[in-house]
Amino acid sequence: MGTFKKVLLASICVAFVAVKWFTPSFDAESLKGARVLVTGASTGIGEQMAYHYARFGAQIVITARREKVLQQVAEECQRLGAQKALYIAADMASVSDPEKVVEFAVERLGGLDYLILNHIGPSPFSMWEGDVEHTRWLMQVNFFSYVQMAWKALPSLEQSKGSLVIVSSLLGKMASPFVAPYTSTKFALNGFFGALYHELAMKKSNVSISVCTLGLIDTEAAMNKVRGITSVPAYPATDAALNIIITGATRQTDLYYPWFTQVVTLSKDWFPSLTSYIIQNSYNYNP
């Protein structure tokens, strides 16, 4: 192994150990009775977060578009030990629904300790062919609704010294083919909430902001899109969900899951040409 590779490997190991060493310890009891709103909770990561919060004894409001599925998830949350498990069906493409969801949660729970913004709209996994209307619609679902809900929830989160948790993606740090509209929404999230983090800190706010950068997760929706197209490994939704919850509970500013997504993010600045080559050749595509 060359000197450069040895230094690089050693640097990564030192950084990994440092992160683990300074990461705050997680107290599961702190979530008992916590008032939590989870969006995109009918399937995938959001559903798994709802179940984890339920096991911790939290009070939960979940939301997504399909009311019947939400009811089933809420019933499972109650079975798992949630102190409360309420649901409200909402369409985040609507201009009014995002704020109505926050109003419902604050009213029914008596406030909020955690706002977990996780929902996404469906988007094709394909070359972009000029569909501006879809991109505009997706920005409302994946970005503007997040901004609306965060603003609406901030007064309650201030009162409770609460946490705002944003579920983002590696694709919000590093552009990739076939997902141009989706990637644009995640870049927007990272930029907006990165700026808001600084503004809240400068105002001595009680609210913490955590931005969670996820790699490929084995949700049904994600796997249906990429199966046979890429060999990038997928990681379990239940583990991703638990890591997101711990990040919010310990008020950390960032989560990278799995851990190597942070290394991948750095690589685009360290080795841009090599990174671009790897990205473009990690998909089965014939023009």
Task: Please name the defining characteristics of this protein.
7 strands; alpha/beta; globular; 287 residues
Structural summary, described in words:
By secondary structure, the protein is of the alpha/beta class. It is built from ten helices and seven strands. A seven-stranded parallel β-sheet has the order 3-2-1-4-5-6-7, with helices on both faces. α2 crosses α8 (237-249). The longest helix has 29 residues, at 132-160. The two termini are 37 Å apart.
Strands across the major sheet, in which order?
Answer: 3-2-1-4-5-6-7
Outline type: globular
> What count of helical segments does DSSP give?
10
Span from first to last CA? Answer: 37 Å
Beta-strand fraction estimate: 5-15%
Question: Which residues sit in consecutive blocks of at least 5 with pLDDT less than 50?
Answer: none
Largest sheet: 7 strands, parallel
What is the string of SSEs from the N terminus onward?
A: HEHEHEHEHEHEHHEHH
Give a short summary of the structure.
This protein has 287 residues and is an alpha/beta fold.
List the topology elements.
Elements: H1 3-22, E1 35-39, H2 44-55, E2 59-64, H3 67-80, E3 84-89, H4 97-109, E4 114-117, H5 132-160, E5 163-169, H6 180-202, E6 208-214, H7 220-226, H8 237-249, E7 254-257, H9 260-270, H10 272-280
Parallel strand pairs: 1-2, 1-4, 2-3, 4-5, 5-6, 6-7
Helix pairs in contact: 2-3, 2-8, 4-5, 5-6, 9-10
